[in-house]
Amino acid sequence: MQIVEDIAGLSRISGPVCLAIGVFDGLHRGHQAVIGEAVAVAEEVSGTAVVVTFDPHPRSVLSSKEAPRLLTSTAHKLVLMSAIGVSQVLLIRFDKVFSQLSGQEFICQLSEACEDLVHISVGKDWVFGKQRSGDLDLLKELGGELGFKAEGVIPVCEGDAMISSTAIRQAIQLGDFAAAKILLGRDYTVLGTVVKGNQLGRTIGYPTANLSVHNEQLPPSGVYAVLATRDAGRGSKHVALANLGYRPTVEGDQGRRLLEVFLLDFDEEIYGEDLEVTFVKLIREEKKFAGLGELKAQIAIDEEQVRQLEFGEI
């Protein structure tokens, strides 16, 4: 996948060019429909589809105190885009300067940079630009002037409800992975970098990979059966036992929330590596034990439960 990091770089992509524009947090089924529209048109005109998205999430710049946790960090979103076949991405740095562009200025810059811009697809209700000055009507107006067609993709629904990042986030907060999977069109996963912890797990025979999660939405605290995929979701998959929580047995009341993953039948150093973690099933709630011996005995029981589960093809 080729990633262009400034609008001017669109000039290096051969036309006709079809753009799919959006934040695409979660890359759920609605987002996939917007991207699919651009891909379909590009195939019809023997052109190139380019996904245009932003880093960081605009809301984290415009109203950081109200910004929700992400469903997918930028790094995770790019991995998922690659997995569904996206070959070209324009990743725009969203900062205070960029936020001052009007909707018209933004689209005109895109049009000017492209060799031959023929199509733009967005969500039907998407708004953009300073003070939300851009919408589908503006896109269509500018398309008439600049020679491209604008398409507003209608929201994808599940039952009577529109699929949205908010609805998926709520499902994850409740630990409802089945509902999240239906809305996402894929398994719910988080991406994290393996960092060094206090290595206590090694002393009791359960070395864990401590993950620094990339500001992504997490489910309720507890012990989970998970699949851990190396190389940011592109490498080998491993059945694992994960603890998400505050580790009250070893941290008391002073712990901070961590995601620790024990990869079964695995003995390699993976510090600095990105793991994609798929939450499969809640094994039990997190609890405080009398000591490390009792904790170790419970982890052995948890591990056996994980080994009894069916994970399908790995």
SS-based class: alpha/beta
Q: What low-confidence regions span 5 or more consecutive residues with pLDDT below 50?
A: none
Please give the number of β-strands: 14
Supply the CATH superfamily name of the largest domain.
HUPs
Spatial separation of the terminal alpha carbons: 24 Å
| CATH T-level topology of the largest domain | Rossmann fold
The number of helical runs is 12
The CATH architecture of the largest domain is 3-Layer(aba) Sandwich
Overall radius of gyration: 22 Å
Q: Could you give the order of the helices and strands? A: EEHEHHEHHEHEEEHHEHEEHEHEEH
What share of the residues does DSSP label as strand, in percent? 25-35%
Description of the molecule:
The chain has twelve helices and 14 strands. It is α/β, with parallel strands linked by helices and 314 residues long. The chain folds into two domains: 154 residues, Rossmann fold (3-Layer(aba) Sandwich), CATH 3.40.50; 121 residues, Elongation Factor Tu (Ef-tu), domain 3, CATH 2.40.30. The strands form three sheets. A six-stranded parallel beta sheet has the order 1-4-3-2-5-6. The protein has a six-stranded antiparallel barrel with strand order 9-10-13-12-11-14. Helix 7 runs antiparallel to helix 8. The two termini are 24 Å apart. The model has no long low-confidence stretch (mean pLDDT 91).
